[in-house]
Specification:
167 residues; alpha+beta; Nuclear Transport Factor 2, Chain: A; 6-stranded mixed beta sheet
């Protein structure tokens, strides 16, 4: 029942996981200094600490740090994949990493854009990533937006939306 709640596009979880992985892998990584979302929390939500949170989540994804990924995703986190699937719950990617289904080879982002609306930040990036999923290679480009919510003095990612860019 839990799994059927996670993907709602009639394709099943297995067919949607490569796209789901691509979404999370696509989180922005730029040359902005590495500050955690809690760092500077006395100032409240800022463009800088929202981008820092996005960068930290990207680092966790790139390093296959399942615990780090889980820390950044809200319990109600949702991903809308480039294929139209919907996945729910912060354990989607960490469980794929722990099971060994995913191997990352490249993770490149560019063109970060951050917009802050009080306690909500939208971080959009262009992403190129490749690797293997269940032994099959993937090589994708996408535009991704992460929606961050300022909660309890830090950022939590509540939604990831991706759009595939044709090769």
């Amino acid at each position: 029942m839990l799994q059927s709640r996670r993907v709602r596009a009639g394709r099943g979880i297995a067919s949607g996981i490569p796209a789901l992985i691509a979404v999370c892998l696509a989180v922005s990584f730029t040359a902005v200094p590495r500050a955690s979302a809690k760092e500077g929390s006395d100032a409240g939500p800022t463009v800088e600490n929202a981008l820092a949170a996005d960068n930290d989540l990207a680092r966790a994804m790139r390093e296959n740090d399942s615990d780090g990924i889980t820390r950044w995703l809200d319990n109600d986190w949702v991903v809308v994949t480039g294929h139209g699937d919907v996945g729910e719950g912060p354990d989607i990617f960490p469980s794929g990493i722990k099971s060994g289904y995913l191997t990352r080879k490249t993770f490149e982002t560019s063109e970060p854009r951050v917009k802050l609306y009080k306690n909500v930040a939208l971080v959009t990036t262009k992403v190129k990533l490749s690797g293997t999923f269940q032994g099959k290679p993937f090589d994708v480009k996408e535009r991704q937006t992460d929606v961050w919510y300022w909660k309890d003095g830090g950022w939590k990612c509540v939604l990831t939306h991706e759009t595939m860019i044709p090769n």
